[in-house]
Amino acid sequence: MRITFLHSIILLFLILLGSCSKKDSFLIHGDLRCVNATTAYLLQMNEYGDMVVRDSTEIHGGEFRFKGKVEYPTMYYVQIGKRKPINVLVENSDISITGSVLLPDEIKIVGSHAFEDLVYLQKEYGKIQNEKSTILIELENARKKKNRELTKRREKRYNQISDSLLQITKQFVTNNPASVGAAYFVCTLTQTFDINKLKEIINTFSPSIKNSEYVRFLNEELLLNQKLSLDSPAPGFALLSSTGDSVKLSDYEGKYLLIEFWASWCKNSEERNKELRILYDKYKNAGLEILSISLDKEEDEWRYGIERDSLEWRQASDFLYWESPVSKYYRVQKIPYEILIDPNGKIIAINPRRYIMDAKMRSIFGF
């Protein structure tokens, strides 16, 4: 009897231990209605904003499963047929996706604490955006009626709203410093706010998640912006061009200039140059200039890369590799790396993602 009781205690302890231990892998179980597709895809966005397939699995009666492992919570997208991908911040846990593909806004995702944190902050952001829209309408009406006092109050409130989003986010991160979901949300804010405005929030994240993809991105952005900031004057320079003459930043006064840092040995640079050729062909007649500054060490390799990638715009290099003073002026930590400068010589984009760059071009040139 005593042995049986002892065994029961040990078994109970093991069960409790197993239930409290952290999983080292994830299982995504989807159970969706109105699914005609036979295959589900697990997608992830790469650094250029493109969706790449990480896994695929068969769908049976609307059910599917993905198994895997992540070091830190990571944003993935579940693609069912041609439907809009379902985004989920995947962590090592059992995650369920339920609902109907015909009602994407009502699909429920349970099992990821990081995703729950993200959803909470996104809802707060949505509330603030709704309030901003309401105030904008009130502001326009006040201006039409030439009500100066009401216009002044509405303008003041509108300017306060963005700061309130930062305060909400800061408070959440203070209370949840190890939330990767919050880190992902702050990454999305870099498209709206200058990175230096987010510095205090970024520094609040716990060291335990410093190596997560999103905290690393935020810290890299801070580092790259220590001497650079949007609307600040671009640092001047003079380099030797591929034709043997000197190329200076002042040569591009009055023009939109995209500076690309690259190298012939960098595979990502080769891929990016393909995209830049398309960008250049589309906007060169509208006024876009591109200057590529290479971090190559050997001139022969540099010239080979120019010919291989069919680069039509001006090329420059000082063959000093990562020790190039110009790369340090612009806080280059990785390549390819880009800076967009307006006709007044001010920086208007710092290493933007491809889709952000495309949006910038459309905004500037109107197509």
Lay out the secondary structure.
Layout: H1 2-20, E1 26-33, E2 39-45, E3 51-58, E4 63-68, E5 74-80, E6 86-90, E7 94-100, E8 108-110, H2 113-144, H3 148-175, H4 180-189, H5 199-202, H6 213-224, E9 238-241, E10 246-248, E11 256-262, H7 267-283, E12 288-294, H8 299-308, E13 314-317, H9 325-329, E14 337-341, E15 347-350, H10 354-365
Parallel strand pairs: 1-7, 11-12, 12-13
Antiparallel strand pairs: 1-4, 2-3, 2-5, 5-6, 7-8, 9-10, 9-13, 11-14, 14-15
Query: What structural class do helix, strand and pairing data support?
Result: alpha+beta
Mean pLDDT: 89
Distance between the termini: 83 Å
Largest sheet: spatial strand order: 10-9-13-12-11-14-15
Question: SSE order in H/E notation?
Answer: HEEEEEEEEHHHHHEEEHEHEHEEH
* Fraction of residues in β-strands: 15-25%
Global shape: globular
Percentage of helical residues? Answer: 40-55%
Q: Helix count, per DSSP?
A: 10
Largest sheet: 7 strands, mixed
**Integer-rounded radius of gyration:** 26 Å
Number of strands: 15
The low-pLDDT segments are: 13-21
Report on this model:
The structure is a single chain. α2 runs antiparallel to α3 and α2 (113-144) runs parallel beside α4. The strands form three sheets. A seven-stranded mixed β-sheet has the order 10-9-13-12-11-14-15, covered by helices on one side. It has a four-stranded mixed β-sheet with strand order 4-1-7-8. Strands 3-2-5-6 form a four-stranded antiparallel β-sheet. It is 41% helix and 23% strand. The protein contains ten helices and 15 strands. β11, α7 and β12 (288-294) form a beta-alpha-beta unit. The protein is globular, with a radius of gyration of 26 Å. It is of the alpha+beta class and 367 residues long.
